[in-house]
Amino acid sequence: MSYAIKALISGRGLPFLLVGLLLISVPSTISKPDEADGNDRKVANVSTLDRLHLNLFMNYDTNAQPTVQGKPTNINLGLSVNYLDIDELNSKITLHCWLSASWMDELRSWNPLDYDNITKVHVPASQLWKPEITLFNAAADDNNYLAETQVIISHDGKLLWVPTAVYTAYCNLNMLNWPYDVQTCKLKIGTWSQSHIEAAYDKRRPALDYDEMVQSTEWDIVSGKTKFVRQDHYNYVEFTFKAERRSSMYTAVIYTPASCIVILALSTFWLPPQMGEKILLNGILIVLIAAFLMYFAQLLPVLAGNTPLVVIFYSSSLLILSISTIIEVVVLYLATAQHKRRLPDCLKRLLHGKLGTWLLLSHFTSEAETQSRQGNGIVKELDDQLYDGPDDLTNPLDINPSEEPSARALQFDWMLLATAVDRICFITFSVVFIVLSIVYAI
Predict the structure, then answer these.
(1) pLDDT (tens digit per residue) in 297-312
(2) Which has the closest alpha carbon to 215: 83, 94, 80?
(3) 151-154 vs 208-209, strand pairing mode
(4) What does the domain layout of the chain look like in residue ranges?
(5) Per CATH, which fold does 67-246 belong to?
(6) How many CB atoms lie within 10 A of CB 4?
(7) In terms of Cα–Cα distance, which of 378, 372, 377, 375 is closest to 419?
(8) What is the CA radius of gyration of the chain?
């Protein structure tokens, strides 16, 4: 028995034994596809992918740029914006985006029929040649970082790489119309080593896409365009877009207080001329405007020649209120000082003539005359508050008396002049504020 076994192994039976062992070790993938079950198909697909991967990357050099018909392949770039933010203080823009880069490689193509109809494969980016893409107008040190996402290889030799990127670039901001400003910013994306670069990675989609952007709390992209720029030693794609500020919050925080300041500043001219509270009200408004200017200094950058119009409006209002305070001091003096001289006749004729009618002083004079007849009008009030003089029953409304007017009549004329100054300043300052609002687009 032992002799027969030795003869089978060492003699002519040895080849048959080896063939039998080989048939046992071969997987069931050699069977017909119609007879294979689901598990056998999965094994076959994995084997096909391995075979395709082996054929694609045999003798592959990751440092050599692919060629198409003997020429270096073109690099097509696209940008899909996810989020936008602008730093006004530092004049920088930050974009969270997907950078889409595609190129052709004629050696990385295959016939899908030879590989179970596989048309696309995903390969780690570290195993392939990739263009060295750079942001030329970068404003941060980490702008060259691109995520190591996988590269999609199509059967026609097209490669698509879509890494995530956070780009921070300098932007020339124009804050003149803040907070209703529209900023135009540019991203210059290219490569130092490859000169064949274009601004389109998919002819069916725009190179700059922001339709699926996450809504920013302050900015909206209203338009965008791309342009290829050729330089002597390098080329790049310039992505230009316009971002519009969402200003609904600023209307309530800035423009509503500005309207209230203007109304209060004009209302001081309608208070009685002998009231010292007018100066106090102007002082409060001056402090309020100064607080807004400090707020703007903290919020906005210092830009030469691009000072926001709203800031100029507030600073102009501060100057106007300062002048108004000086005028109110003069009016208060005219209304409360114990004058010894008569009001010039030319001013009396103006105050009791058409100018007085236009300034609504005739109503003031009629009301004073009525109160004087009742014994408790403005003449009595002046007699109690402004001076202590002898009792005189002379009518204060007599502008051309045959004799020297009484102290009450003299004081009433000066108060009438103070009221006229207030009314004229009200008209003048109203026109000034209207002009400021039109010029500075408030």
Answers:
(1) 888 877 656 788 888 8
(2) 83
(3) unpaired
(4) 29-59, 67-246, 252-439
(5) Acetylcholine Binding Protein; Chain: A, (2.70.170)
(6) 8
(7) 378
(8) 44
